[in-house]
Amino acid sequence: MNFQNRIDPESGLPLKELLDALPGGFNAIKDIGKRRDVINSFIRMRASELPTIENVVIEDRNIACPDSSNELVVRIYKPRRVSGIFPGIFFIHGGGMIMGSIETENHKVAMLCETIQSVVVSVEYRLAPENPHPTPVQDCYKALVWMSKNAEELGYEANLLAIVGGSAGGGLAIGTSLMARDQDFPKLCFQMANYPMIDDRNETPSSKEITDIGIWDRKANIEAWDFYLGGKKADEYAAPARAIDLKGLPPTFIDVGELDLFRDEDIEFAKRLLQAGVSTELHVYPGAYHASESFAPEAELSKQIWITRIEALKRALKSNSNGV
């Protein structure tokens, strides 16, 4: 089946340029360190083409983690407004559990901060294969706990805290939400998982169909899961699709492209959330491949994807009686 012909034409242009320059896509680079360098350079180049976001104050901070000698780096984003209490967003970057950083999604997070007028904390969790599961999700949970306990200092309303992530970050967002539910802290009002990476089994039809799009194909996904699990069996915090009980999770937003390897696992997870009584909004975008809105931000499809996400976040973080 030729999936290339079904890609949205506008969204497909930068993908074609990438594949012309790097046949086989990013995953053709076998060495993980070199792959990270190439991807980071590509993302910096794309970000330089986007408009500058000036109405945001950014601060990096090292935070101590409870029950651990390790420190984590978090990046704090605040609207450039001297007074007022905002909603809070805890953000987890993507990268297949093996790539990415707070820097690679800096522009996206700054845009969320400015557009939604919220305090955002992005976490620099440690990556596999150097740090396999459970380190990444535990790092995310520890940083979320820190954010929740420091709501007053950070300047956001503690009762209005959402968690957001895409791809691996979406899977980690759901895994972190499961931890927060099981630990009964903190209370999240919303979770947004954009094309989340949640199933290590690679058994769905879409996981077998998407083999040559050039962005996060089957081979890359299998490799990433092997790196992330480090020879261990996945639990529900590593692969949330394995969770038996989904009750008690926060209201959820999931979106995924029609031509994304994660399509079917995400649709199935959304169905299971609904069946568990979790209010869930699901969007499947025809013509979209994995992270196409990041590769082709000026495409009309990409703009619609972002508009829908922003509206959903604004609804979830709507002002309450405290005047947020």
Question: Can you characterise this structure?
Answer:
- By secondary structure, the protein is an alpha/beta fold.
- It has a single domain (4-316), classed as Rossmann fold.
- 39% of the residues lie in helices and 20% in strands.
- The chain has 11 helices and 8 strands.
- It has an 8-stranded mixed β-sheet with strand order 1-2-4-3-5-6-7-8, with helices on both faces.
- Helix 4 (135-149) crosses helix 6 (168-183).
Shape: globular
Oligomer: single chain
SS strand fraction: 15-25%
- What's the CATH topology label? Rossmann fold
Domains (count): 1
**Count of individual beta strands:** 8
Assign the structural class, choosing from mainly alpha, mainly beta, alpha/beta, alpha+beta, or little secondary structure. Answer: alpha/beta
Q: Helical element count?
A: 11
Q: Major sheet: order of its strands?
A: 1-2-4-3-5-6-7-8
Biggest β-sheet strands, sense, barrel? 8 strands, mixed
Find the CATH superfamily.
Alpha/Beta hydrolase fold, catalytic domain
Mean pLDDT: 93
Using only CA atoms, what is the Rg? Answer: 18 Å
Which terms summarize this structure?
single chain, alpha/beta, 324 residues, globular, Rossmann fold
